[in-house]
Records
---
Amino acid sequence: MAGVASAAIDALAAAKHHHPVMPPATIHDHVSHFGENVLWITFIVFAITFVVFAVKTSQIKTSERANAYTSLFIVGIAAMSYYAMATGLGVTYRPVKHHLHHFRQFFFARYIDWIFTTPLLLLDLVLVSGLDLGSTLWIVFSDVAMILTGLFGSYASGRAQWGWFIAGCAFLVVVMVGLLKNGAQRAYSKSDDLGKVYTTLTSSLLVLWWIYPIVWLFTEGKTKLSSDKEVLCFAILDILAKVVWSTIIFMQHEKIALTTTILDEPLLGGGLGATDDDAI
Ligand code: RET
């Protein structure tokens, strides 16, 4: 009992110093003050964006708020995830391959964040195009599988890691095909204007999303970049993919609302906005 209590006290003391699970090792890669500041600044950016989005959402007609609520939820989750990482909660250490006494900080909170926010980002596009439920499901399932490969791949060692990485990239290709083929067809079938808005949103999203595996390769994968650089690269990407990208959706909302009839259609009638007959 006393052992448990003293372990709890040790854990609390360690958490206070941002090293929650400090293994008995000789080398640790972890963020310096610079990285910690990046985490805090990113948290503040997301928190402010959440407030701004909440105000903007309240100014939109209730029936046209679907994208706005989705974006609000996305930045809200990101704010929580960055708060967790900045306070040392969503962080642990993992062994670095081929080195017995070398451990590197591992920000698992990212993956919890991404597993919720990437499907929500895709939902934004589904709402814009009015894609049918069947296509939506395989796109979203591939996306979730992709994030899981990143989580497992970070912990895997040696060659096993590349299996996860390749599988993850394959899932991203599936997502890409679904968005560019099924999604675009559906959006253009509604109107040319909507098709164009959808294509701009989708291509900017995909360009950003392909940078994630590249950063992952040099950080979690090959551990070539320091923990500070890892935090900085993902923070920039997350702000671009969530704050900037969702702001574009907010700005386009009138065009989207004018051309879609999503909310007038029955939600369970074959799709999130689509009916059975217009499913592709
Ligand atoms: C991983 C590693 C495995 C291979 C691939 C990946 C892709 C991750 C992506 C993440 C996107 C995150 C976003 C977050 C929200 O802002 C998991 C890094 C392909 C595309 C958009």
Note: Residues 17-266 form a domain with the Rhopdopsin 7-helix transmembrane proteins fold (CATH 1.20.1070.10).
---
Amino acid sequence: MALWNAVASRLARQRSWTAGVGSSRALSSWWHSVEPAPKDPILGVTEAFLADPSPDKVNVGVGAYRDDNGKPVVLECVREAERRIAGSMNMEYLPMGGSVKMVEETLKLAYGDNSEFIKDKRVAAVQALSGTGACRLFAEFQKRFRPESQIYIPVPTWSNHHNIWRDAQVPQRTYHYYHAESRGLDFASLMDDVKNAPSGSFFLLHACAHNPTGVDPSEEQWREISQQFKAKGHFALFDMAYQGFASGDPERDAKSIRIFLEDGHFIGIAQSYAKNMGLYGQRVGCLSVLCEDEKQAVAVKSQLQMIARPMYSNPPVHGALIVSTILGDPELKQLWLKEVKGMADRIIGMRTALRENLENLGSSLSWKHITEQIGMFCYSGMTPEQVDRLTKEFHIYMTRNGRISMAGVTTGNVRYLANAIHVVTEST
Ligand code: LMR
């Protein structure tokens, strides 16, 4: 009797499950509570731009380099590397930590060609999915091995930094960075925040070409920041997404990092080739952590790989091959350095042109920050409402925080852009 009851109830369960599957209610019930995610403040702008049929539209939203005709650029060194790679390599899995050659070359860019830390094998480093992936790996590592810690993030910062540490469940604190009135660095408040943070705090620093403000500390200020970090025993994670884009010289743009290294800090660095090699969609970058000795570096690297394995197993091979081919060949590396400088110089030229156009229009506002800021972005000081007007009335797309991607400004659109900015800033 007991056996019969068990069989009968199983059949009943099966019947009700089958009926449930057949009904549209059951099919639609799994995700009924899912609401659409908010649009990404940066990539959402690109979506809106693409959907606009206007022939006048201008995209100065996303930080992606364009040539003076507004077209995406593939660097000549990348084209040549691709020719060399084509058909000559297999497509096997990379190790969990990625391409050893690419990582070696990448460390030299950040730590210096003759870095003693590299020679002493004190740097734990893995290939990462561009800068985002490098930051995310670090955030996961931080959560796993320093679960009590928080991360101090500048105000403002690249919006995705917040998402990265939120999803890694690391609590976020902020530190002062930008001074709205001067459109420059709020150095005094920054130093106060570094001083007042609990000893041994984690800080996220932009190594150069701060995103979104285009405002970097001077060399002297970096030295003071480094000293204060030392006094407090803080950890610095440098996000270096724009090496070469600030001054046109990757070596010069690594100055902040070199100062921290000279001062004996055990730092972390997130590097990316999205911008400086134009390898946006290849997702190639590197996370490194400077350790006390080789033994510690081996342990840290193995743990970083362990974090990567269940997330994406091992990183993609093609972008890593491009980078190692370019940086491993002296001639191609020279070509790359020339091309990075060319991109940085075009942007600097566009800064001058935008400022001049606004001044020639008789603007009552000061626009000198356009040429004082550095890197890919100009933090214009425009309000979200003014940005909305630019989009609605002029089909100009940019992030609502007033950030202009100078990489999208060209000889062809700079007057149109200046005129539109003049109209919305003079009439509101
Ligand atoms: C940007 O800030 O526009 C870029 O870093 C692109 C991105 O992924 O947000």
Note: The CA atoms of residues 38 and 44 lie 9 Å apart.
---
Amino acid sequence: MPWQPLRLWRSRDCFVCGESEKTLLTALSKKASGKIMSSNSFPLSNASYSSDAASTAKVVSDGAVLRSQVCEAQALGRRVGFVPTMGALHEGHASLVRAAVAECDDVIVSIFVNPTQFAPGEDFQRYPRPIDADIRLLNSLGVRWIFVPGVLELYRTGESTRVEVHGPSARWEGAMRAGHFSGVATVVLKLFMVAPANVAYFGAKDFQQTVIVRQMVADLFLPIRIVVHPTVREADGVAMSSRNVYLSPQQRVQARAFHESLCCAERLWRDGASPDLIAQTMCETLSRSQVVVDYAVVVDPETLELLETNCHVPRAVALVAGRLGQTRLIDNRELLTNDQK
Ligand code: AMP
């Protein structure tokens, strides 16, 4: 029977497909395991690449193999850096990889489109997977390992553990995308266990994600340092994102409103405007470009709680999220006063 994409929906705390999340993951894995598929075929395997794309970096899909090689390198005193990604790599990812290569002896980049962080109806199936191009880019950047696990490698049959980072997960992206941060925290912890690096690199582009990962690392005493690098933008200010390929030319122009709203927020912040006024202005800027706004807020960068005033607040971050057609984009900016610049 030809493979049919499964419909996911959410029941209580897990995705279900007929029976359970496990059924879904197993189904995904059966489709994916051990098969090399072309990069544009139905996107279940994360391990589909042609051998000529993998020349210098070691492409590994077996977690145990990666783990033993990482431990071996560390036993020789080598410092290992790790950049977790979902692939469809762009300059934002490359900036993290370059930083890791510059600061570490060996670098792992994982490419894994993690099913558990996609809510039902989201773009898991159509998420871009140009694996050959990704491997070529990573080879040119000098990474040592490219980890491309199949779904079953990380979500083994019978597995039943999920990581919940309460508090910062509940708001903003967490409120909009049911189960998203549980999926993120779970896969990041799994990846850290399989690839026990000394330091991991994340992008400020996903600001809330960095808060959650840091919280998890602190709460669970994970022996890994988290480094966050600034958002890389296109020349017109649009934050680079693997999802930008979904935008039509017109939507791509409209997407500038995200960055414009954040620049405007910073100007207002410096002038002493209230978080409410800033939020309202960001909303208006986005709406003028026909962005359907999910949220536009000024928050405390640690708790992610809404700020009520800009007096005596050492740090603040503006977060925006919205949709252009079917495509959902997020962006953020730390709000700095002239003194903090
Ligand atoms: P993703 O493949 O979208 O899961 O992203 C992998 C990592 O790259 C995450 O830590 C992201 O925050 C980071 N990243 C994505 N886009 C950018 C960007 N434009 N600038 C900097 N980092 C980014």
Note: The two ends are 60 Å apart (CA to CA).
---
Amino acid sequence: MKTTEIFKMKRVLSFEIFPPKRTGPVQTIYNTVDELKALKPDFISVTYGAGGNKNNTKTLTIASDIKKNYHIESVAHLPSISLTKEEVLELLESFKVAGIENILALRGDSSPNITPNNDFHYASDLITFIKDNGDFNIIGACYPEGHIQSPTIVEDILHLKKKVDAGADQLITQLFFDNDYFYTFRERSMIAGIKVPIQAGIMPVVNKKQIERMVTLCGASLPRKFLSIMNRYEHNPEAMRDAGVAYAVDQIVDLIAEGVEGIHLYTMNNPYIANKIHKAVHSLFVE
Ligand code: FAD
């Protein structure tokens, strides 16, 4: 099923997972999916390392198994920064054969181990290409605080509108810790004429280093309340985990009260955390 169809029926709850590292056994992810399945997510998305091996088939295999063996809708991430048009065509063909209907189409980021290819400059170029070469449901990324490379949030939203006009059927946000950014972004997107569902991406903090790394990469603001939690509990993993879960639950409750169309939980492959959050908020997804 195309995930956009789910929004017509209910408020969406989805999970993001990432494939195990190249050296790690692939089975570990299936132990995680076994536990996530019990929470009945509307879909699970599987990331794709833009810097990874081009023949990296883990995302494809895991997304296909989630759909075929676990009977949960899946989304395959696809960053195009280092890919040629021919390589994307091959991947699209493999997605079709594997029964994958949903693609999170991304530009990806350059880094020392990534050689950018100029076939796709922006995610909107990839989205146009996918639309021309298959019948996929396409999801795009969006940034409540503005993308880190964008000079202003207004320019970023104008670029986002181009991405939606190119064919993005749905959007998922970057993580954020202050819901007010989301509400302002949602309003500005509406004014810009963006009408597709926008799902809020929520990442529970379970470890100070992990959040600091993420924040360096994406530039998310850390509210005072959030910083106090990180500073007070950084040496007490259990308390940090509980406080991180409580903070994420608080964000989700507020977002749902304000009518968000869906929550995308960055699980960090941690079913314990997903389970705790699900227990606290699952009734809010039933209208
Ligand atoms: P774009 O939409 O292309 O935007 C990138 C920048 O270019 C923005 O500043 C934008 O304003 C600007 N821009 C866009 N169009 C134009 C234009 N026409 N002219 C001038 N400027 C323009 N990365 C991975 O490698 N693998 C993953 O699995 C992955 N999953 C992600 C999931 C989510 C939900 C999110 C939010 C991000 C994910 N990322 C992933 C990270 C993503 O690749 C980076 O955030 C990347 O920097 C931007 O990708 P994008 O698709 O949003 O790019």
Note: The pocket of flavin-adenine dinucleotide is lined by residues 47-48, 50, 77, 79, 104, 106-109, 122-124, 141, 147, 149-150, 156, 159, 162-163, 172, 174, 201 (CB under 6 Å).
